[in-house]
Amino acid sequence: MIRLLFLTLILISVNAQTDWEKWSAQEVDYKLKETKKRNYTIENGNIITQSLSVLKLSYWFLISDLDGDNCPFHLSCSNFLVESTKKTNLIKASLMFSDRFTRDLNLFKSFENYEIDNNRFYDPLENYLLDERKIHIKPENKK
Amino acid sequence: MKKINLYIIISFLLVPILAQNNNLLSPENRLKFGNYLFSTKDYLRAVSEYQEFLKLNNNDTIKFKFAFALENMNRYNEAGENYKSLFFNSTLEEEAKLYYLRLHFIQDNYEKFEQLSQNTIYKPQAKMEQVNKLKMYCDYFILNKKIAYDSLSSTFNKENSNWFSDLYHQKNLDNKKSPLKSAILSSIIPGLGKIYTENYSDGITSFLLTGILSYIAYDNFKANRNTRGWIFTGLASYFYVGNIYGSYASAQIFNARIDLDFKTNVKKNLEINNYFIEKYDFIK
After folding, report:
1. In chain B, which residues have their Cβ closer than 8 Å to the Cβ of A103?
2. Which of A56, A84, A116, B143 is 20 to 30 A from B261 in CA distance terms?
């Protein structure tokens, strides 16, 4: 019986979990990890779309990347201009952008009319095409 | 000592042989566990227990509960097939047909609901009052068909609940904004159209932006700085026209929001009233 007990104890200690990993100093990096990578390619399309795309990339490189990601809306204002030009025409897109700029400026920071999507206010350009059938108040995933 | 060790070893060997034989996975136990899970709304696990039970037993109530659990897990196609399996030679035939029709309503498939409710195979003959109630609700509140108030009131106001009068008034309340009026107001005073559509901060911002740019343009012209004057005039005009455009769009968005709120209330009301279908004791 004692031999049996002794054998059991030996077996337990042989199969027990061992720890060969030694603690060592780790280099700490306090830099925030970049979660969002911007696409710096010039978009394909007509001359107007390409020009706006270049303008957008210049704005990103010279101002936005240094200033920080400040746009509160889901489709950022620069993307809003380019996408609305693709969907409509330059004149309509510029009017849409002018209205978007005013709403972004929003001196009283009152955004209660917007739904939240991806930690930003949901403001799709389809809502501003002056077509009632295309308006959607809530993002797709919240319907 | 050797004898004591022998007794200990023999007793350890006998324990599993002599222990109470309780088959936890017997159909009866599966059913009990399944019912418990169902009552706690753990439909995912209830479904697997019922599935195993139904492999060896044919029980209409459990089949119905199985279909109901699938429905609550949004597995509508499977739920539909299981309800259909109770359509013939079943004690719960009428109830299964009723819940099958309800399933199409839940999925916003109103045309299919109307079509099937006319079909003899899917029509629960003894429960047509409930089906007709649901149909009337669908026709008036969802499909916007014209139905006399008296007819609606006599159908839905029986229980003296407030929901009908609230929903009826919400549907007939004309609180939508005119996009054209909004655009005209903004052309007279920048931002007024947005204030009309209850976007107060956007309206004031539009007014201030257009106003400040216009003033700067005027000031530059006054100081004979014509180039700057024209630049700021251009900017002021740009934002002025943009504000008119934005006011028109904001009225459309305002109206879309009203429609969405109404549709949400219609759906919520249906869920609260269990789609006007009685909830049976065995699925509570």
Report:
1. 202, 205, 246
2. A84
27-86 of B, contacting A, C-beta below 8 A: none
A105/B246 CB distance under 8 A: no
Across the A/B interface, how many CB contacts are shorter than 8 Å? 75
B250: tokens are: 């904001």
| B103, B123 contact by CB (below 8 A) | no
Report the chain B residue with the minimal C-alpha distance to residue A115.
B257
Q: In chain B, whose CA is at the least distance from the CA of A98?
A: B242
Please, which residues have CB within 8 angstroms of residue B136's CB and are 6 or more apart in sequence?
Answer: B147, B151, B152, B155, B156
Residue B185: exposure state from Cβ atoms within 10 A (0-12, 13-18, ≥19): buried
From CA B238, how far away is CA B89, in angstroms rounded?
73
> Minimal Cα–Cα distance from A21 to chain B, Å?
40
Nearest chain A Cα distance for residue B126, angstroms: 35
User: Model pTM?
Assistant: 0.73
Place of tokens 């004309």: B174
Q: In this complex, which of A1, A95, A135 lies closest to B252 when CB atoms are compared?
A: A135
Q: What is the ipTM of this complex?
A: 0.70
Question: Checking phi first, is residue B281 left (phi over 0); if not, alpha (psi -120 to 50) or beta?
Answer: alpha
Q: Is the dihedral of CA B221, B225, B231, B232 positive or negative?
A: negative
Dihedral angle, C-alpha B129, B132, B138, B143, nearest 10 °? -160
Mind telling me how many Å the CA of B252 is from chain A's nearest CA?
A: 6
Q: Transcribe A74-119 into DSSP letters.
A: SS-HHHHHHHHHHHS-HHHHHHHHHHHHHHHH-TT---TTS-EETT
Question: Average pLDDT of each block of 10 consecutive residues along chain B (284 residues)?
Answer: 73 60 76 92 93 90 93 93 90 90 88 86 85 88 86 76 81 89 96 94 94 95 94 95 96 93 88 83 76
Report the distance separating Cα A90 and Cα B273, nearest Å. 51
Chain A residues whose CB is inside 8 A of the B211 CB are none
Task: Say yes or no: B199 contacts chain A, CB-CB below 8 A.
Answer: yes
